[in-house]
TrEMBL record:
This is Beta-phosphoglucomutase. It comes from Clostridium frigoris. It is an enzyme of class 5 (isomerase). Transmembrane segments: none annotated. It comes from the Bacteria. The keyword Metal-binding applies. One of its GO terms (molecular function) is beta-phosphoglucomutase activity. The keyword Protein biosynthesis does not apply. Keywords: Carbohydrate metabolism, Isomerase, Magnesium, Metal-binding. Its EC number is 5.4.2.6.
Length: 215
C-alpha cells in the first residue's frame, strides 16, 4: 500500500465501546417482547443499522410485526440507548486512539468518520473528538446500510481522495465488507478469527502509530 491520503474510522467498536450500551437497550426491548437475547446474539448487531438490528432480534424471537410497530420499538430502544451514551466522556475513548489520530495528522493525512450510527454527533461531542474530523458521514447521511459501500465512498468523496488511497478501520464484518466493496484497504479492530476478510487485523490502538503500520 502506497500513497495513503486518508483514514476513515468506524465509530462504535473502533473509537469507543458502545456495543455494551446497544446490548443493554436491545436486551430491555427483547425482554418486553419475551425474546431471549444473549450477548452472543448481540455480536450479530455490530455495524448493522438500527432497523436491521431490530429485524434480527424479531427473527430470533420468531415474531412478525407491522412497520409502524417496528418504528415505534426502534425509537423506544433508541431513547434508552441515548440515556447511556449521554453519559460518555473523553475517558471512554478506547486506549491509544488519540495518539494514533495525532500520528495521522502529523503525517498530513485526512480523517473521516464512516459510521452506521444516527447518534454519532452526540457520541463524538461527548468524547470531544469532533474537531479531529475533516468529514463526518453517518447513518443520517446514507440511504444504504453496511455492507453497502455508500458510507465510505461518501467519506472519500467529501475528502476529495480516491477510494484506493483510503484506509478503513472497522470492528464489524458488515463494515469490513463495506470497505472492501468500496475498494479500500481495510484494517480490522478485534480478533483475527472473527475478522478474516480484513487486509490486516489489530487488537486495538494501544502503542500504535501510523508509521508503525508500515504501509
Ligand atoms: P444507532 P458503527 C453501528 O455503529 C453499531 O455498530 C450498530 O450496533 C448500530 O446498530 C448502528 O451503529 C446504528 O446505531 O442506533 O445509534 O443509529 O459501528 O457503524 O459506528
Ligand atoms: Mg463498529
Amino acid at each position: 500500500m502506497h500513497n495513503i491520503k486518508a483514514i476513515i474510522f468506524d465509530l462504535d467498536g473502533v473509537l469507543v465501546d458502545t456495543a455494551k450500551y446497544h446490548y443493554l437497550a436491545w436486551k430491555r426491548l427483547a425482554q418486553e417482547l419475551n425474546i431471549e437475547f444473549s450477548i452472543e446474539d448481540n455480536e450479530r448487531l455490530k455495524g448493522v443499522s438500527r432497523m436491521n438490528s431490530l429485524e434480527i432480534i424479531l427473527e430470533i424471537g420468531n415474531i412478525t410485526l407491522d412497520d409502524d410497530t417496528k418504528i415505534k420499538l426502534a425509537e423506544k430502544k433508541n431513547i434508552w440507548y441515548v440515556e447511556y451514551i449521554s453519559k460518555l466522556t473523553p475517558a471512554d475513548i478506547l486506549p491509544g486512539v488519540i495518539d494514533f489520530i495525532e500520528s495521522i495528522k502529523a503525517n498530513g493525512l485526512k480523517i473521516a468518520l464512516g459510521s452506521a450510527s444516527k447518534n454519532s454527533m452526540l457520541i463524538l461531542t461527548n468524547l470531544k473528538l469532533t474537531d479531529y474530523f475533516d468529514a463526518i458521514i453517518d447513518g443520517t447521511k446514507v440511504s444504504s446500510a453496511k455492507p453497502n459501500p455508500e458510507v465510505f465512498l461518501k467519506g472519500a468523496l467529501e475528502l476529495n481522495i480516491p477510494p484506493c488511497q483510503c484506509i478503513v478501520f472497522e470492528d464489524a464484518q458488515a463494515g469490513i465488507d463495506a470497505a472492501i466493496n468500496a475498494g479500500m484497504y481495510c484494517i480490522g479492530i478485534g480478533s483475527k478469527n472473527r475478522l478474516k476478510k480484513a487486509n490486516l487485523v489489530l487488537s486495538g490502538f494501544s502503542n500504535m502509530t501510523f508509521d508503525k503500520l508500515g504501509l
